């Protein structure tokens, strides 16, 4: 599999450019709505530090929605697959044998047969 | 593995987006696509920032505490949208050697534009209502058409933007309904605001003929799929019946729906006004740019503080 190069790290600069000036970094933001939900990626922010990223994330993404936790992950720390690497996500084989859908319909058809037999039995009793 | 020729990559990219596939920030893309996208996103972000200004003007003057709270929430949303869109624009602009600071500062040099509708005055409380209801309504018509845009990072952000704009429209409707059901003076104020804004609402979507070379690129790569006129027609279909239902008179005696043609006929606005606005010579262009410059300078210490190395004892 091919890992994708990180996004070019030029972005946001401070007001006064020049050597020695600190720069904003990009933090990817993940929000957890409640304890039974996973952290879900919502977007990214520019911040000078991880602490600021968390505050900016709250202001950017949680003006209305409730949440119990935010993760801020520096973009450069994320390892990602390459969108062009289709082979990595190839699905040549039929995956239905792994799923509910692979069995449900046939099982239902079989159960219907049992039910029909049951009805036939009842009819026989009535006739008798 | 061999590196494909430039033309092959370009042709493949065009074929991909033509099939409806999406582009990500890390994908290879033609420079003309990247540059047209940066331009579009930059203008969208700056328009969100500039759009907050006429609304901000109304926070201290809004009639009730509840209205002030809603307006403040709107202003925060608009500024928040600008932040989200700038973040997407930055990733696109980085390979061009352009950072966030340049994207924002080009507003002041006139290299970057902001939306024509935010060059207009909003003298009464009814104007604030019309902006919320109809200007934001027009904005959602054009933004919703971009939810399936070929540039996926922007389309993802737009889902949040459109959801929040939904609240803005409801709030604008609430203001307009209150005025429409109010005293004769309030109804009159609403009618006058509609008259002031009608032409701006038609100008909002831009001229009907094919636009600039830059906008042709947006269509070519399926960033956009709906034309200015298609969006304007959609807006008229949605809002003309609602405006009339409130008993308001749209200041265009020629306005009617042509059943046979399946489209709205309207008196064309003065398109030349868009040219003046593009030169920042609209009614309030310079005033609003002045406000933006002021708020940019007043916020400088915040940007600097965010970047200052932490000095506090741990």
Structure description:
By secondary structure, chain A is α+β, with helices and mostly antiparallel strands. Helices cover about 30% and strands about 15% of the residues of chain A. Chain A is built from 2 helices and 3 strands; from the N terminus they run E-E-H-E-H. Chain A is elongated. The relative contact order of chain A is 0.16. Chain B contains 12 helices and 2 strands; from the N terminus they run H-H-H-H-H-H-H-H-H-E-E-H-H-H. Chain B has a two-stranded antiparallel sheet with strand order 1-2. The model of chain B has no long low-confidence stretch (mean pLDDT about 90). Chain B is mainly α and about 325 residues long. In chain B, strand 1 and strand 2 form a beta hairpin. Chain B has helices at about 5-20, 30-55, 65-95, 100-110, 125-145, 150-180, 185-205, 215-220, 230-245, 270-280, 285-300, 300-305; strands at about 255-260, 265. The interface of A and B includes residues 13, 22 and 60 of A.
Briefly summarize what is shown:
The complex is a heterodimer of chains A (128) and B (314). Chain A is built from two helices and three strands.
Total number of beta strands of chain B: 2
Q: What is the mean predicted local confidence, pLDDT of chain B?
A: 92
The helix fraction of chain B, in percent, is 55-70%
Gyration radius of chain B, rounded:
21 Å
| Number of E-type strands of chain A | 3
Overall pLDDT metric of chain A: 83
Tertiary shape of chain B = globular
**Intertermini distance of chain A:** 71 Å
* Main beta sheet of chain B: 2 strands, antiparallel
Q: Which oligomerization state do the chains in this entry correspond to?
A: heterodimer
Going across the major beta sheet of chain B, what is the strand order?
Answer: 1-2
Walk across the major sheet of chain A and give the strand order. Answer: 2-1-3
Q: How many H/I helices of chain A? A: 2
Helix proportion range of chain A: 25-40%
**What best-fitting shape of chain A do the alpha-carbon axes yield?**
elongated
* Most extensive interface between two protein chains, with residue counts: A-B, 36 and 31 residues
Percentage of residues in DSSP E strands of chain A: 15-25%
| Class inferred from helices and paired strands of chain A | alpha+beta
Give the strand content of chain B. under 5%
Order of helices and strands of chain B: HHHHHHHHHEEHHH
């Amino acid at each position: 599999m091919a890992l994708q190069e990180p996004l070019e790290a030029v972005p946001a600069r401070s007001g006064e450019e020049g050597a020695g000036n600190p720069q904003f970094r990009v933090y990817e933001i993940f929000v957890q709505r409640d304890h039974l939900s996973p952290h879900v990626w919502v977007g990214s922010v520019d911040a000078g530090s991880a602490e600021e990223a968390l505050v900016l994330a709250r202001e950017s993404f949680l003006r209305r929605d409730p949440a119990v936790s935010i993760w801020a992950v520096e973009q450069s720390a994320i390892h990602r697959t390459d969108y062009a690497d289709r082979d990595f996500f190839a699905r040549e084989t039929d995956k239905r044998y792994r799923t509910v859908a692979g069995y449900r319909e046939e099982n239902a058809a079989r159960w219907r047969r049992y039910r029909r037999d049951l009805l036939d039995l009842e009819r026989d009793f009535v006739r008798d | 593995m061999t590196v494909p020729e430039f033309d092959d990559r370009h042709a493949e990219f065009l074929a991909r987006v033509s099939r409806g596939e999406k582009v990500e920030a890390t994908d290879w893309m033609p420079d003309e696509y990247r540059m047209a996208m940066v331009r579009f996103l930059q203008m969208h972000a700056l328009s969100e920032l500039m759009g907050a200004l006429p609304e901000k003007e109304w926070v201290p003057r809004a009639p009730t505490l509840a209205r002030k709270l809603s307006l403040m929430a709107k202003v925060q949303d608009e500024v928040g949208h600008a932040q989200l869109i700038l973040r997407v624009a930055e990733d696109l602009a980085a390979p061009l050697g352009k950072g966030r600071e340049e994207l924002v500062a080009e507003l002041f040099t006139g290299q970057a534009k902001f939306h024509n509708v935010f060059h207009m005055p909003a003298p009464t409380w009814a104007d604030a209502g019309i902006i919320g209801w109809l200007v934001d309504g027009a904005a959602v018509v054009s933004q919703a058409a971009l939810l399936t845009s070929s540039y996926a990072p922007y389309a993802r952000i737009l889902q949040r933007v459109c959801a929040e704009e939904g609240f803005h429209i409801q709030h604008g409707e609430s203001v307009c309904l209150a005025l429409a059901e109010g005293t004769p003076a309030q109804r009159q104020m609403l009618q006058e605001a509609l008259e002031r804004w009608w032409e701006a609402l038609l100008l909002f979507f831009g001229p009907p003929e094919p636009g600039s070379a830059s906008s042709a690129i947006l269509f070519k790569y399926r960033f956009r799929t709906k034309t200015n006129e298609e969006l304007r027609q959609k807006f008229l279909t949605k809002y003309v019946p609602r405006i009339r239902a409130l008993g308001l008179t749209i200041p265009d005696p020629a306005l009617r729906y042509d059943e046979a043609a399946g489209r709205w006929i309207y008196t064309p606005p003065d398109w030349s006004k868009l040219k003046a606005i593009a030169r920042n010579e609209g009614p309030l262009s310079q005033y609003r740019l002045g406000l933006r410059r002021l708020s940019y300078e007043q916020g400088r210490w915040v940007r600097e503080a965010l970047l200052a190395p932490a000095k506090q004892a741990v």
